[in-house]
Amino acid sequence: MKKRNIFWGIIFLLVAVCILISELGYLPDINVFKLLLAAMLIAIIIQSIPRKDFAGILFPLAFLCIIFDEVLNIDKLTPWPVLGIALFGSIGLSFLFPKKKSSDGTSYQYDSSNFSESTTQEYGSFVQASVTFNSAIKYISSEHFERAELSSSFGSLKVYFDQAKPQSDSISIHTDTSFGTTIFYIPREWNLFINVNTSFGNVEEKGPKAPDPTSPKITITGDVSFGNLEINYI
User: Fold this and answer.
1) Which residue from 54, 99, 138, 152 could staple onto 157, CB 3.0 to 4.6 Å apart?
2) For the CA atoms of 7, 10, 12, 14, what is the dihedral angle to 10 degrees?
3) CA 47 to CA 6: how far, in whole Å?
4) Share of the chain above pLDDT 70, in %
């Protein structure tokens, strides 16, 4: 059983216990809906802290402030001021404390397309690209593709893998998307496994898959916060 399933299972069991206690009359003034929503928001915060997912930390905190503004006596800060604080706080912290990239001595091609639109091609066993406040298209054409680190913040990133030639039995693609969209175009015959964490985000697969047993295992990991990861099979 995945650790994430265990984590969410415990959260919902605790909520169920609180509802039971409330219905028995021990906590008569409890709002079950607020309790459930608060539990989910706190769970998202706990999961986001180790990943340095600032949007996944600040926005749930903002929603908690909105839900309990009367109790906390912060009516003047809700809803828009606290949401603005969460938005600009997430942006600022992301710049000050960027997520660490993989570094193991492997040669790679790096492209950081910040504040300007670009369309480039990447070569090498390890491809790394990032987009911030812009849009970009990447074509991966490596003859010995092994790994990729791809990120999009407040922008749009499209990546085409149809020209890449994996030379390993296990390929790793890591993606971080926050307040943006990341779109992958993946050969339909690849054996794709998706293990992506979402915080107010979405992972969507489009198109028919036709996995080939002889193709390598491709694992997509990462985080999607207030954004969308779209995987198109071509």
Assistant:
1) 152
2) -140
3) 12
4) 81
